[in-house]
Amino acid sequence: MRLSWIPALAMSAALVYLGACQNDDVGSSDSTPAVEPSVTGTVGLGTEFPNAPFLSEASDDYFLGMSLADAATVVAAGRSGSLDAGDLRSGDRVEVWVTGPCAESFPVQCTVQAVHILD
């Protein structure tokens, strides 16, 4: 008796499991990814490009100075209305999620998926 269905069943189970683990998409404009943030830190505002937000006091020095200006989603507890990266204030404590590879430069250039402003 051939048991050729066993590998197919095992592969299907693995794909279902991996699909359940891949819940890192931003669900809506008012949510953050369902995974741990890539880095935490404090917002600084640039002087070369006035008011351009960047990450200072980063929990991982790799991300120090990373631009937050093009964040896809900005979420803040205690602030009303729609937010974008221009609403980040100097000194805001933030959690940041990045997606994809980062360009190896200084400061590092990453695609910022979401920023959560902490209370």
General description of the model:
- The chain is α+β, with helices and mostly antiparallel strands.
- The chain is built from one helix and five strands, in the order H-E-E-E-E-E.
- It has one helix at residues 5-21, and strands at 39-45, 53-56, 73-76, 93-103, 109-117.
- It has a five-stranded mixed β-sheet, with no helix packed on it.
- The chain is globular and about 60 Å long.
- The chain starts with a helix and ends with a strand.
- Residues 14-29 have low confidence and may be disordered.
Radius of gyration over all CA atoms, rounded:
19 Å
- Please state how the strands of the largest beta sheet are arranged side by side: 2-1-4-5-3
Number of helices: 1
Overall body shape: globular
Cα-to-Cα separation, first versus last residue: 63 Å
- Characterize the main sheet: 5 strands, mixed
Structural class: alpha+beta
Mean pLDDT: 79
What percent of residues are in strands? 25-35%
Order of SSEs: HEEEEE
